[in-house]
Amino acid sequence: MFKGHPKGLYVFLFANMGERFGYYTMLAIFILFLQAKFGMNAEEAGRVYGTFLFGIYFIPLLGGIIADRLLGFGKTITLGIILMIAGYLLLSQPGSGKFMIYISLTIISFGTASLCNISTCLYVLRKPTKMSREMKILTAAMPKPRL
């Protein structure tokens, strides 16, 4: 089952698994945390939540540019892992105020943005040399555009 896979696949697997685990675990209780800890009403907590989700889903464009033009895929993913660990550690500190929460959410957003290049890395890592039987069937079944 594990034979024939590149060694980097396991690094990508655990990096992505850690990122998804932290993300979904935090989002499950995030609004309740903001309301209980800081006394935010539902509207204000929803605004913070929405801004964080905006960062998670739109900052990866910046992460892709950094990976393509500046650091490369491996260094960008390593930077993303470090940023996410730092952001979650800052978020978990007792007694931190609203400003520290905003800073840690920003750091987590940039860390996640750096990790969203994993699917591209998997393609580069695998570098298919010949087309598998399944790929031949899929490409033959795909509709071809006609001019």
In short:
With 147 residues, the chain is mostly helical. The protein has helices at residues 8-38, 42-58, 60-71, 73-91, 98-115, 118-126, 133-141. The protein has one domain (8-141).
Model description:
This protein has 147 residues and is mostly helical. The chain has one domain. The chain contains seven helices and no strands. It has helices spanning 8-38, 42-58, 60-71, 73-91, 98-115, 118-126, 133-141. The N and C termini lie far apart (44 Å). The model has no long low-confidence stretch (mean pLDDT 75).
General form: elongated
Radius of gyration: 19 Å
Structural class label: mainly alpha
How many domains? The number is 1
Strand content: under 5%
Segments where pLDDT lies below 50 for 5+ residues? none
SS field, number of helical segments: 7
Mean pLDDT: 75
The helix-strand sequence is HHHHHHH
Roughly how much helix do the residues carry, as a percent range?
over 70%
Described by strand count, sense and barrel closure, the largest sheet is: none
N- to C-terminal separation? 44 Å
Query: What is the β-strand count?
Result: 0
Secondary-structure blueprint:
Elements: H1 8-38, H2 42-58, H3 60-71, H4 73-91, H5 98-115, H6 118-126, H7 133-141
Helix pairs in contact: 1-2, 1-6, 2-5, 3-4, 3-5, 4-5
Any descriptors?
147 residues; single chain; elongated
